[in-house]
Sequence to fold (189 residues):
Amino acid sequence: MRSARGLTLSELAARVGISRQMLSKIENAQTSASLATVDALAKGLEVPVTSLLRAADFETQAVFAKAGQAPETVRRGSNLGHHYQLLGQLMRHHGLFEPLLVTLTEESHPFPLFQHMGSEFVYVLEGIMDYQHQQSTFRMETGDSLLFDSEGIHGPARIITAPVRFLSVFVTQERPPDSAGDRTEAASH
Fold:
């Protein structure tokens, strides 16, 4: 909030009546602030006290994946020649959000039998494939997307032009097991 308002440590510390060093320790969670200091900080930032405490209720997350450096991960389709890169994963009390970069080559075997809780979004970056969801088959080319209920049987049914690279974003409200690595591939691909 201090940075968003264009205030330096020294400026806010002067407004609040504490040292710059103390403010730095509070901002970096190296010390706790008294209620009087929290009240003074809120006044100095011109916000309600509750806005300073709201962030204590939950921890926000951010996951950055540098181009070409996302880690390879093993999934159910890995033994069929599917290559998976995990672009990030956010697990919260309300579920899981997981984007994957999937690459299929000429050596990959189609496998339209994935099934799991939640929803999935597939966006083709390169190549052409037939993608199956339940009884429907979709010819997917570069730039095409498909959003579906992933409880229905789904997956690549046929590789037309390889390599096929697509973004697969999986979202579920179900809480995954404690370790994401323990999840069976039936829960994601």
The chain has four helices and eight strands. Residues 9-57 form a domain with the 434 Repressor (Amino-terminal Domain) fold (CATH 1.10.260.40). The chain has two domains: 9-57, 72-187. Residues 176-188 have pLDDT under 50 and may be disordered.
